[in-house]
Amino acid sequence: MNRFKLKKQFRRRWRQWRKALWTFFMAGAAAFAFYTVILSDNLEDLLTDEGPAAMEAMVQVTEGDSKDELSQQQKKFIGTVRSTGLNREVHLLTNYVCGVETALLGNYRAEDLASLLEQHPDWSGRLNAKGEVWLEREVADLSPMCKKNSYMGIGSGKQLTLFEGPPQKEKVIRTFFQLDIGSMETSLPEGVFQQLREGIRIQDIEEYNSVISTFSDYAVEQTRKVMGQEY
Questions:
Q1: Which of 157, 174, 178, 183 is the most buried (most CB within 10 A)?
Q2: CA triple 195-199-205, angle to 5 deg
Q3: CA quadruple 84, 86, 88, 92: dihedral positive or negative?
C-alpha cells in the first residue's frame, strides 16, 4: 500500500473519530445540563412546600406584628428624657433575625428625642454611663450583610445551622434543630442532601423560612419538642 493511500485512509478514520468524539461530548453536556436542572427543580419543589413543624423557628413578616402602643417602661424613659432637657448623642441598634447593625443618629434635643420615641413605640431606649441614648429595635428580616453572605447547612451535632459564608468555613451564626441524617439520605430527592451539606444560599427572609420549614420534617423527635421554647 503506497503512502498516498495510507494518508487517505488516515484522514477518513480521523474524520470518523472526530465525529464520534463530538457526539459523545454533546451527549455528556446535555446529560449534565439535564441533571443540573433536575437537582435545582427538586430543591425548589422542596422549598415551596410548607412543613408542619418548626413554625416557631420561622419569622412571619406581617403588617400587624409591630407594637402600636407605648409600654409603661417606654413612657417612663420618655419622661426621663424630657425632664432632663439635655441634648444627647443618639445611637440606634437594630437586631435582625440574622445580624446586628448600629448607627449614629446624631445629637438630639430632649423634646425632639421624646417625639422620635413616641413615633416608634416598638423601639426601646436606655442611657449609658456617658449619658448617650441607645435606641433598640427588632426587624423581622435578614441584615444586608447576611443577605450577601449567609448559607444554611449542617453544623456540628448534625444540626441545621445558619452560617456566615459556606459551611466549610464553620462561621456559625445560629443553630436550629438536630437532623435525622439517615432519613434525609434515603428520603430526599437525589442531590438535595448533598446541596445542604455544601450550603444552601440564603438571600432573603422568604428563603430563610422556606429552608427551615422544609428540613423541619427531618428534625429529631427530641428537638421537635423544645423548638417552641427555643425559637
A1: 178
A2: 110
A3: positive
Q: Which three cell numbers stand for residue 15?
A: 474524520
Residue 10 included in any domain: no
Q: Which residue has the cell 427551615?
A: 212
Whether 125 and 202 map to the same domain: the answer is no
Q: What is the pLDDT along the chain (231 residues), one digit of tens a residue?
A: 444 444 445 455 545 544 554 454 455 545 444 455 445 555 555 665 544 444 445 554 443 344 567 788 888 888 888 998 889 999 999 999 999 999 999 999 999 999 999 999 999 999 999 999 999 999 999 999 999 999 999 998 899 999 999 998 889 999 999 999 999 988 888 888 899 999 999 999 999 999 999 899 899 875 554 454 444
For the chain, how far is it from start to end, CA to CA, in angstroms? 84
Alpha helices in the chain, H assignment, sequence order: 3-47, 72-84, 110-119, 144-149, 181-187, 192-198, 205-215, 221-230
* Amino acid, single-letter form, for residue 30: A
Question: Residue 189: which CATH number?
Answer: 3.30.70.1740
Cα angle: 173, vertex 174, 175; to 5 degrees: 140
Question: Which residue do the cell numbers 449619658 mark?
Answer: 131
CB 29 within 8 A of CB 85: no
Q: Which domain holds residue 82?
A: 63-143
d(CA 51, CA 28) in angstroms, rounded, equals 36
Residue 40 lies in a domain: yes
CB 78 within 8 A of CB 120: no
